[in-house]
Design goal:
- The protein has helices spanning 12-23, 45-48, 76-89, 102-111, 125-141, 163-175, 180-183, 235-248, 258-263; strands spanning 2-7, 27-33, 58-59, 69-72, 92-95, 116-119, 146-153, 184-185, 200-206, 212-220, 223-231, 254-256.
- It is α/β, with parallel strands linked by helices.
- The strands form 2 sheets. A 7-stranded parallel sheet has the order 3-2-1-4-5-6-12, with helices on both faces. A 5-stranded mixed sheet has the order 8-9-7-10-11.
- Helix 2 (45-48) links the parallel strand 2 and strand 3 (58-59).
- Helix 1 crosses helix 8, helix 3 (76-89) runs parallel beside helix 4 (102-111) and helix 5 (125-141) runs parallel beside helix 6.
- The protein is elongated, with a radius of gyration of 19 Å.
- The structure holds nicotinamide-adenine-dinucleotide.
- The site of nicotinamide-adenine-dinucleotide (NAD) has 24 residues, from helix 1.
């Protein structure tokens, strides 16, 4: 039985992860960790997430003896602390937290020499299939098509563009032998001039309670292709994360992605 600890248990994703653990086989939730000082500390995590009591109380302390895999859905600055904890105690880490900067991503890579690290800015199986479709589309369409990535999320999201939109940009740029840092355009306003060939544009929408929508538009003179993925229920991220947590158990130290989980790479 794989023992799971969740960091960010009181958050939107945390609650869904608690429910997903409840429904999963061969896996058990043993710790549900919240931020220090949270009013929720001491509450049964099952009841907190809207289900029945599970006996795992929300706590602000992580105990290395009680878990095999830590699933982190918090904030970038928080993830770094949990990463250090997992390295010290040789535990696997799956992080779905988005908005990590280059230094924080570098720390994940460094840690992956000692423990298994799975970085999944989007744990939806459908999104990860979409990445494969985008890779193929970019290769076939080549440089003749303009590419724009449009994403929409709820009003409380604190980073932009979304981790998924950036991942889509990276996959496309790589397929086209481009470097996303050199070709990404994140904002347009005023006298922008004509669109520069070879750029990849990002458009961000923030409104209401949109769970997550991504469209990649490939447009040329005379035709247009749009690849769209829409989420209506956060549980899909939670189920994908649980599938990934099950996969990461027993993996060698290394830096993994959802692509490895989906394609069954070891
Ligand atoms: P949220 O703000 O609802 O939840 C984050 C939680 O982390 C909050 O409850 C906060 O109090 C808690 N937290 C802060 N410091 C903590 C600490 N030291 N220890 C434990 N918990 C702490 O946000 P959310 O919508 O649940 O998203 C969390 C992260 O996951 C964001 O980065 C978001 O972009 C990302 N996300 C990823 C996916 C995916 O598929 N990978 C899907 C949805 C959201």
């Amino acid at each position: 039985m794989t023992r799971i600890a969740i960091a960010g248990a009181a958050g939107r994703m945390g609650k869904n992860l608690i429910l997903a653990c409840e429904q999963a086989k061969h896996l058990t939730l043993t710790q549900a960790v919240v931020r220090k000082g949270s009013e929720s500390i001491g509450t049964d995590s099952g009841l907190f997430s809207g289900s029945t009591a599970n006996g795992v109380l929300l706590s602000d302390r992580l105990d290395a003896d009680q878990f095999d895999v830590l699933i982190d859905f918090t904030r970038p600055e928080v993830t770094a602390g949990y990463l250090d904890f997992c390295v010290t105690h040789r535990r696997s880490l799956l992080t779905g937290t988005t908005g990590l900067d280059a230094t924080q991503l570098g720390k994940l890579r460094e840690a992956s020499q000692q423990i298994a690290v799975l970085h999944a800015p989007n744990t939806s199986i459908g999104v990860n299939l979409s990445l494969d479709l985008l890779r193929q589309a970019a290769k076939v369409l080549g440089d003749d098509f303009d590419i724009e990535i449009i994403e929409a999320h709820h009003r409380n999201k604190i980073d932009a563009p979304s981790g998924t939109a950036l991942k889509m940009g990276e996959v496309i740029a790589e397929a086209l032998d481009r470097n996303l840092d050199d070709c990404a355009v994140y904002a347009r306003q005023g006298q922008t001039g004509a669109r520069q060939p070879g750029t990849i544009g990002f458009q961000t929408l923030r409104a209401g309670d949109i769970v997550g929508e991504h469209t990649v538009l490939f447009a040329a003179a005379g035709e247009r292709i749009e690849i769209t993925h829409k989420v209506s229920d956060r549980m899909i991220f939670a189920r994908g994360a649980i599938r990934a947590a099950r996969w990461i158990v027993g993996q060698e130290p290394g830096y993994y992605s959802m692509h490895d989980v989906i394609s069954g790479n070891n």
